[in-house]
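ok trying this again, last paste got cut off
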Amino acid sequence: MSGAVIGKRVEQGDADTTEITALASAAGYEVVAAVTATAPRDATFNLPSGTAAALADAVESHDATTAIVDNELTPGQAHNLSERLPAGVAVYDRRRLVLEVFERGVGTEAARLQVKLARLRYELPRLRADIRRDEATEVTRHDEEGKPIEDHKRRIDETRRKLQRVEDPTPKRMEQRRAAGFDTVALVGYTNAGKTTLLRRLADDLSLDADGHSDEGGEPNVADRLFETLGTTTRRASIAGRRVLLTDTVGFVSDLPHEFVASFESTMASARHADVVLLVVDATDDTAEIERKVAVAREQLADVEGTVVPVLNKTDRATEEELAAAREPFESEPVVASATAGDLAALRERLVAELPTEEATLSVPNSDVAMQLVSWCYDHAEVRDVDYAEAVEIRLRGKPSVIAEAERRESDIGSQSNRS
């Protein structure tokens, strides 16, 4: 694991390096030191000059290979900082680091192309800056003036065209799952909020791959690191008689540029098309942090089709006063839960209450075909009561599409009986 030194500047308050350190770890770096400053924006390094010098000293003393600045750097600022560092030390800003994390974890072809497109767009202004410096110092590294830029733009256009030809399979997959009688639930939230552990607590033993096939050996990883889930993990659950598919999505990250959001668009698509979205928030965060995270989540979830249910997780680690403050940023009452301690009865109850639900009473002649219908109802819905008499009466409750199919089967059995 390569050593890295973190540099960060904030306008006011204390510079928190928790998330950038976790990002660096996810990208394969060991953070050996951090240098922070509270100061106005500086045009030379986007770090105060003294902080840039301290960053260089820390890199040298720890023999680090990379300097990671938790601010956006212009091509000129990155070059200026590189000039202050020991030779051969790479300079990453936040965008470049997130790109590297994405590149290590993308799974689908669409996501791979989105990451490639984001990288090419990131690199274009830096290539222009390199060429301008070459020209200013009369260093010639290019065979033909302008050709590297045109080649780079051509690669951007080619990648964009490839991306347009890649079909997003998520809507079709979600529709197939609904047709099979499953309710769909997505877990979203910031990284390390406990989504994956919550998934495991809610789910049955069976996991599914992206195409809906069983994968009984697959276990969602619950390591405490960012972007452990860049693809989606889907697990099956039976909750109050409902057949549910739970999908764990990629975690939100602070200040994520729009072009990087597209890099895991396929995972967010699972949330957009879900019947219910569980927005998982760490209850141990302070109120200001929860407010900020909830605001980002609202923006990301603005076009979801289903109901968003806020969940305050890790409540076993929070005091009553902290829990009361943590509830304030939410527009609707959050469910209080702990993925690692206590039961999740309240969450299961709220989840089922928010799922699209209809009820019906079926009545069919008592026969072998009726018994098959009863069995089908038990497999696809919540059967409230069955009365076996001259006619079999079934009271059931479930998702609208399942109730509609049950009523269609009832009608078919009635038609067959009349013909007999």
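PB: full thing came through this time. Residues 109-136 form the longest helix (28 residues).
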